[in-house]
Write a structure and sequence with these properties.
The complex is a heterodimer of chains A (about 240) and B (about 240). Chain A has about 240 residues and is α+β, with helices and mostly antiparallel strands. Chain A has ten helices and five strands. In chain A, helix 1 packs antiparallel against helix 2 and helix 2 runs antiparallel to helix 6. Chain A starts with a helix and ends with a helix. Classes of the chains: A alpha+beta (about 240), B alpha+beta (about 240). At the A-B interface, helix 3, helix 7 and helix 9 of A face strand 3, helix 6 and helix 8 of B.
Chain lengths: ~240, ~240
Amino acid sequence: MAREESVLEAMVEAIDTLTEDFDVIDFLHRLSGRCAELLDVTEVGIVIADQYGVLRTIAASSERTRLLELFALQHEQGPCVDCYRSGAARMDIDLTSPEATASFGNFAERAREAGFVTAHALPMRLRNQTVGAMALFHTRASSLAPADARVAQALADVATIAILQQRTLTQTSQEKAQLQHALNSRIAIEQAKGVLAERWNINLDEAFDVLRSYARPRHVRITEVAQQVVAGSLSARDLRA
Amino acid sequence: MVASSGMAALLHGLRNPTDASLLIGGDPDACAAVLGVDGAAVSVASDGRQSELVWYSPGVSARFDDLQFTLGEGPGVDALSTGSLVLEHDLTRVEPSRWAVLLPEAAALGVAAVFCFPLRIGAVRVGALTLQRAVPGPMADAAMEDALVLAAALTSVVLDGGARPGVLEEQDAGLHRAVVHQAGGMISVQAEVPVAQALVLLRAYAYRHDRSVMAVAEDVVARRLRFRDGGMGRDPSADVRG
């Protein structure tokens, strides 16, 4: 398939999803995966600011705990923080260069340990405000062509729109509240992952898969499944069925 | 997305009540003034239902919350059950059947606009904050940001089972880290308590051992620390491994 067609398909898929009562966390998870595929980068993550102005991970192309922790490490330092504060994209960051990563604290070291060599960060903008950032990580040295950078920015914009489209909040067009709602959805999933990991003695990555595998064929949101797991209204046996 | 200086100054008071018998300190009226509303009230939940009014501006706000509790319907009840914000800046424009009994009573009380914020952290819901105003009209953007910060701070205080002077705001911010919630879920299974209480055990343990909540949570997730017997009252001892 031609590149343009793949991009177009990703956009159409996004628009289709947004017209329904969609699952924002699952959507962002898939969008991150798509983005990684289209731009031929290793991993993609999305962070948004909480009510304290601190960046929180909301989704990533892979739910591997180590990757999520790496994104989370950017709450104070890292490419996403710079990008969020300045509102400008930061492309082709060489994670092996002490000069390029001087302001990143121990983030650069941890990223290198995880095998990443290059990073890009794109702002998630809402009118004249930046609400978060999308980060692209690569395990080899590479630069993003201008056309690829535009695709990445378009996908970051779609992610922003998705967060602001959550139907559960139709009563408010209040954007900050919608960001909070999305972050709470993410936290509910983390709580449920903890419950399942302990109950079945599995790891947290597997716990996410359990939630997702249960939710998708039943067309319910992962967040709702998480809510039920935490409330104890969904039994272990139901989940494994 | 940070609090105004006016709100920031008030947040400190929440954890430092002048009367030790109060669950939440601070001044609801002063918070209401910063938010551009006439009154504020917090009711806490048990078993997912609105159960007790614990912090309120005297007068209309208290009576409006009592009404919701008595009637079992209203924006605060909805905010609690759905976990979403309920913002109605003009009650005369609300579909009458939505809160059939409450709406005429609210009008009689002189409440024209209500803004309800669930006090929640992930899947855990501990109560609702209800703001009301006699004059209709939406909240300003800056006031909305302040209200979200206030709701987060109130959530943290209620979750702890009350004001605890000395708990820093850093601890509140720690409540938004993934690892803290993964640990909360794990502890709830280990100690056989709800996740809300598991978060309290985690924070209390960190406080007693003078460690950060994050560091303790990391130990739990790495299965180096297990909580057991988290029942009410007694010291929730934990086993340290390896």
